[in-house]
Design goal:
The protein is an alpha/beta fold and 285 residues long. It contains seven helices and twelve strands. The longest helix has 23 residues. It binds nicotinamide-adenine-dinucleotide. Its EC number is 1.1.1.27.
């Protein structure tokens, strides 16, 4: 996915320059097959100065088999503290996309560390979960997933919820059903299912991140469920969670406020409390 020519210059940064160089070479070979004159190079923060978009994916690895995304918080905060101040200083106008987990907590930390306006810090949040959910609904309903408006919102973690009450296809509100509830339960765990089989997940998240970059670069104003600093919706603020968000050249151009059911609103507030708890534990460590 990285070789789609939507940017003119791509810089890969890693603590291991060899790893970044290897990836840059491999991607350059692959991009020779695309209609692209994008340059792909390994380099330093200085090389990448003046970037329009930064995608942050550096991460520690899980240390136990039954890991949860929130386990990575304590290990990943120092990575953000190490890299983000210099990245923010050398690319002060960039839109920052956070991928590293726990992504909602990392998005909040990134806003604090960079001092960027919250509109320019976006976590991939429940975008991947929503894409996975729409893919299984699409299979079940035999309708293209683009035409299924169904969001998973809240945290990118075990307490995410499907916003059934605002889901529709072609104007029909046929969610929730037994099927949609079952497919949602499967979606919540499917990331771990992929991880348990291959040791990581990459294709889905890469394409999801590309769709955010695309909407920024071409100012497309697509609405996507991504992690943003919540603006008081349902009484929640000072935490990052996923809400349907319009994304354009300047980053977040608008956060939408869907009329959630009582049950969904309670699930959203529960996610807020849970993510705040991790933020506070991390701050005290
Ligand atoms: N938000 C999502 O939907 C989603 C989906 C998939 C993966 N993820 C998360 O993305 C992150 C990356 O996943 P991955 O599978 O690519 O992991 P990975 O272990 O393959 O890659 C992590 C990278 O970070 C680098 N790194 C480690 N410590 C570093 C440091 N101190 N400085 C610079 N670089 C450092 C490593 O060299 C490696 O290249 C993880 O936190 C993972 O949980 C999020």
């Amino acid at each position: 996915a990285t070789m789609e020519p939507i940017v003119s210059e791509l810089w890969l940064l890693n603590r291991s320059i060899e790893k970044a160089e290897g990836d840059a070479m491999d991607l350059t070979h692959a991009s020779a097959l695309r209609n692209s004159n994008m340059t792909i190079q390994a380099g330093t923060i200085e090389d990448a100065a003046g970037s329009d978009v930064i995608v942050f994916t550096a991460s520690v690895s899980p240390t136990r088999a039954d890991w949860k995304r929130s386990d990575l918080a304590a290990g990943n905060k120092p990575l953000l503290e190490h890299w983000l101040p210099a990245l923010a200083e050398s690319s002060p106008n960039a839109v920052l996309i956070m991928v590293s987990n726990p992504v909602d907590v990392m998005t909040y930390a990134a806003i604090q560390i960079t001092g960027f306006p919250p509109e320019r810090v976006i976590g991939t949040g429940t975008l991947l979960d929503s894409i996975r959910y729409r893919a299984s609904l699409s299979h079940e309903l035999e309708i293209h997933s683009d035409d299924i408006r169904a969001y998973i919102l809240g945290e990118h973690g075990d307490d995410q919820f499907a916003a059934h009450s605002v889901a529709m296809t072609g104007g029909e509100k046929f969610f929730p059903s037994e099927t949609s509830r079952r497919l949602f339960r499967e979606t919540v765990n499917v990331g771990y299912e992929v991880y348990n089989r291959k040791g990581y997940t990459n294709y889905g998240i890469a394409l999801a991140t590309m769709s955010i970059v695309d909407s920024i670069v071409y100012d497309l104003r697509h609405t996507m469920p991504v992690s943003v600093l919540v603006d008081g919706f349902l009484g929640v603020d000072d935490v990052c969670l996923s809400l349907p968000t319009v994304i354009g050249r300047s980053g977040v151009t608008r956060i939408l406020h869907p009329p959630l059911s009582e049950e969904e609103a309670a699930a959203f507030r529960h996610c807020a409390a849970k993510v705040r708890e991790t933020i506070e534990t991390m701050a005290s460590e």
